From TrEMBL:
CDD domains hit by this protein: NAD_bind_Shikimate_DH
Pfam family, one: Shikimate_DH
GO cellular component, one term: cytosol
UniProtKB keywords: Amino-acid biosynthesis, Aromatic amino acid biosynthesis, NADP, Oxidoreductase
Pathway membership, UniProt: Metabolic intermediate biosynthesis; chorismate biosynthesis; chorismate from D-erythrose 4-phosphate and phosphoenolpyruvate: step 4/7
Keyword Amino-acid biosynthesis carried by entry: yes
Domain SDH C-terminal: 246-270
Binding site residues for NADP(+): D83, G134, A135, G136, G137, A138, N158, R159, T160, R161, I162, R163, I223, G246
Residue ranges constituting the Shikimate dehydrogenase substrate binding N-terminal domain according to the UniProt record: 12-94
Phylogenetic classification of the source organism: Bacteria, Pseudomonadati, Pseudomonadota, Alphaproteobacteria, Rhodobacterales
Every Quinate/shikimate 5-dehydrogenase/glutamyl-tRNA reductase domain range: 130-198
Organism: Allosediminivita pacifica
Subunit organization: Homodimer.
Stated name of the protein: Shikimate dehydrogenase (NADP(+))
């Protein structure tokens, strides 16, 4: 094999993966910073996943992002996991280390918090309770990061109650479970309101939780980014709340992976938003 330095490769693995915006995002950064590298989408069948992950470093891959449906599966394949990935039980970023080990990390919560810190000026997570709607995989990352940021209480509400109960068992008694039919009441007196369900996403029904308790003192955010303005965000804007859309979370969660793989901490700005929106 040639001794010439290899062009570093990274990518995103999922199935399907064609919808992923990550190639636009990383492609924009590679181009902007003049880095000789490539980022490619890879649709890999479940029975090929483990072999593929072992083979990619030999092909010059320095790491990959992981998306649906493999975020949990890769935790069993990785040799090492970060504390936050272990806590969440899922990984979205793998680093192929020089010693051959696969390191799994989860940067979704980091992306969520960074987005709020940068987009909602003066947001103080410690100032009051947060309401988290939904208790799926995304909710786990959001809950972990909110607790880490010092939120005093999380009121969690999910259509399927047992999933919210499981989160409370896993994350402790700063979580209070609220029945889904009572979710609107949970908003009363909250500082931060987050939708982590897929409701409101293009092709899905709207979130129908009553929103009368929204107040202009609140920071309201949605992890849905297509469309950029969901019913939750529209009503929150009308109430004078500080509103943060979900696209920023997608952009910020990509920063630690890019930095580890390509050796440069990239900027999240309007140019990047436009590149990803296409
Ligand atoms: P992700 O990893 O993106 O969070 P997920 O684990 O499938 O995906 O979770 C999707 C979330 O959206 C869940 O909270 C789900 O509620 P259930 O646990 O009751 O399924 C929520 N969700 C999806 N469709 C919904 C609907 N029609 N009404 C209420 N909640 C819904």
């Amino acid at each position: 094999m040639s001794d010439a330095p290899r062009i570093p490769l990274a990518g995103v693995i999922g199935s399907p993966v064609a919808h992923s915006r990550s190639p636009f995002l990383h492609g924009h950064w590679l181009c902007r910073y003049g880095i000789r590298g490539h980022y490619v989408p890879m649709d890999i069948a479940p029975d090929r996943l483990a072999d593929a992950l072992r083979m990619l470093p030999e092909l010059g891959f320095v790491g990959v992002n992981i998306t649906v449906p493999y975020k949990e599966t890769v935790m069993d394949i990785a040799d090492l996991t970060s504390d936050r990935a272990a806590l969440i039980g899922a990984a979205n970023t793998l680093i192929f280390r020089k010693d051959g080990k696969i390191h799994a990390d989860n940067t979704d919560g980091y992306g969520f918090i960074e987005n709020l810190r940068q987009s909602a000026e003066g947001w103080d997570p410690t100032s009051g309770p947060a309401v988290v709607l939904g208790a799926g995989g995304a909710a786990r990352a959001v809950v972990a990061s909110l607790l880490d940021a010092g939120v005093p209480e999380i009121r969690i509400s999910n259509r399927t109650r047992i999933r919210a109960d499981t989160l409370r068992e896993d994350f402790g008694n700063r979580l209070k479970v609220v029945e889904w039919v009572q979710a609107g009441n949970a908003i009363e007196g909250a500082s931060t309101v987050v939708n982590t369900t897929s409701l409101g996403m293009t092709g899905k029904p709207e979130l129908r939780v009553p929103l009368d308790a929204l107040d202009k003192s609140m920071v309201v955010t949605d992890i849905v980014y297509a469309p950029l303005e969901t019913r939750l965000l529209r009503e929150a804007r009308d109430q004078g709340c500080t509103v943060v859309d979900g696209l920023g979370m997608l952009l910020h969660q990509a920063v630690p992976g890019f930095e580890r793989w390509f050796g440069l901490r990239p900027e999240v700005d309007d140019d990047l938003r436009q590149a990803v929106l296409g």
